[in-house]
């Protein structure tokens, strides 16, 4: 019978890829791109779905066509959200450049508030365009403003939570 060749600390080996418990990962094993893409898509679906759902409800109410209108607004949001991710990177760099001596959690909080306002505005625009349309500009502007103002507290809460707790972990995961 062959001797047991399994390392004694297999949990550490499986989690961080190192042969000793205290050694760091040497960087040879990278996170697959598919996992990174799936993480971003999951975030887009949860955050975008929640925000466009609130905005769609404010624009059309709960009717027979609510879920169809919501799905259209969410699909439109998928086209806008990559721009938001790029803007988040730019806003983060800008804030880090302008406030280098500020603590990281304060910079992340500022980033979260700024990004919430930017993304809410963009998502309110896309949701109002899909649910109301551009035929009546007054109705469109009212729908955009109402969707923006109602979803802003939800967006601020989400963005602050994301930028303070989840964003640093996501950045580390995406860099791996």
Automatic annotation (TrEMBL):
It comes from the Bacteria. This is DUF2798 domain-containing protein. Residues 1-12 have a biased composition (Polar residues). The chain crosses the membrane at residues 33-55, 75-96, 108-128, 148-166. Keywords: Membrane, Transmembrane, Transmembrane helix. Residues 1-26 are annotated as: Disordered. Pfam families: DUF2798.
């Amino acid at each position: 019978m062959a001797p047991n060749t399994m390392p004694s600390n297999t949990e550490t080996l499986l989690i961080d890829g190192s042969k000793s418990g205290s050694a760091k990962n040497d960087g040879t094993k990278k996170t697959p791109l598919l996992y990174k893409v799936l993480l971003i898509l999951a975030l887009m679906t949860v955050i975008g779905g929640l925000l466009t759902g609130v905005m769609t409800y404010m624009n059309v109410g709960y009717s027979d066509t609510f879920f169809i209108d919501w799905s259209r607004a969410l699909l439109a949001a998928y086209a806008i959200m990559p721009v938001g991710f790029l803007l988040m990177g730019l806003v983060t760099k800008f804030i880090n450049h302008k406030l280098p001596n500020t603590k990281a959690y304060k910079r992340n909080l500022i980033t979260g508030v700024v990004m919430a306002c930017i993304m809410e505005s963009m998502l309110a625009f896309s949701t109002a365009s899909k649910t109301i349309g551009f035929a009546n500009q007054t109705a469109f502007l009212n729908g955009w403003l109402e969707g923006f103002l109602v979803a802003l507290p939800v967006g601020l809460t989400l963005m602050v939570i994301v930028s303070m707790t989840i964003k640093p972990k996501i950045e580390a995961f995406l860099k791996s």
